[in-house]
Amino acid sequence: MNTIGIKELQTNPGKLSKSLGSDEYTLITRRGKPLGLALPFSDGLMENGFRHWMVIKAFQAGDISLGQLAEALDKNKHQTLKLLGELNIPFADYDLEQDLQTLEQLFPA
């Protein structure tokens, strides 16, 4: 595994390209602490879970729906919700305070 600091990457991006071209992965660091990992693209990478990770990240970012996530993972919605729970990923995004205010307006004390 190669390691490159973020500052070196900015000044010498060819080092990363060379590493990826040699089918090696590179740990990118900031002040000596891991920041990210650069991997060469391959069919094996996609077949061994990276595709699932990417669609889960897309769901977390709000770019795809629960149904789209389930379809991409080849699971039903119940299985997908179970997986999200196991990964501690919320499947609903709401503002509790706003919901409480709405309830108060609908059902005043």
Please tell me about this protein's structure.
The structure is a single chain. The chain is of the alpha+beta class. The chain folds into two domains: 2-38, YefM-like domain (YefM-like fold); 43-86. It is built from six helices and three strands. It has a three-stranded mixed β-sheet with strand order 1-2-3. Helix 3 (43-60) packs antiparallel against helix 4. The protein is elongated and about 65 Å long. It starts with a strand and ends with a helix. 5% of the residues are buried. The model has no long low-confidence stretch (mean pLDDT 88).
The chain-level structural class is: alpha+beta
Uncertain regions: pLDDT < 50 for 5+ in a row? none
Strand portion: 5-15%
> In which range does the helix fraction lie?
55-70%
Query: Largest sheet at a glance?
Result: 3 strands, mixed
Rg, please? 21 Å
Query: How many domains is the backbone divided into?
Result: 2
Spell out the helices and strands N to C.
EHHEEHHHH
Distance between the termini: 64 Å
What is the spatial order of strands in the main beta sheet? 1-2-3
Strand tally is 3
The chain-level mean pLDDT equals 88
Q: Please tally the helical runs, counting DSSP H or I stretches of 4 or more residues.
A: 6
